[in-house]
Amino acid sequence: MDHYTPKNFMLTESVGFRIVKARNLVVAELDTALKDLDITSQQMGILLSLKQRVATTPFELSKLLGIDTGLMTRMLDKLETKGLLERSRDANDRRVVNLNLTAQGLETAAQIPEIAPHVLNARLHKFTKAEFAELNRLLRKFTGD
What we know:
Domain HTH marR-type: 1-144
GO molecular function: DNA binding
Pfam families: MarR
Shape: globular
Number of strands: 2
Strand order of the largest sheet: 1-2
Protein name: DNA-binding MarR family transcriptional regulator
Radius of gyration: 18 Å
Keywords: DNA-binding, Transcription, Transcription regulation
């Protein structure tokens, strides 16, 4: 079923526009809240992914977080410069770069759960539990997860 046609398509009423607008609101609010940790919301995703071991290489992080490899490299450079992560070559395959959080990176990552939920809860405060569950379900359906 086609939900859009050339006749009814209006940018500001499209699902894509609303998703991007919602993303930008959350990113801006998270970036403000994370300022004291000296990280951005995108860097937060990297730190938490490494802490939770859902990704351990730049390629895995790029795929998981939807960030192109060039931008990922620059973000990892910044985090490494800040002393939050270390890169090392894989012992079995020197082409693979493994990423590990430093002690400072682990400490920073441990503080994120004290900050991020407040930002998200403030954005979601008008949602009932059922609406929140439905939003999550619909977003998973939309993204194919």
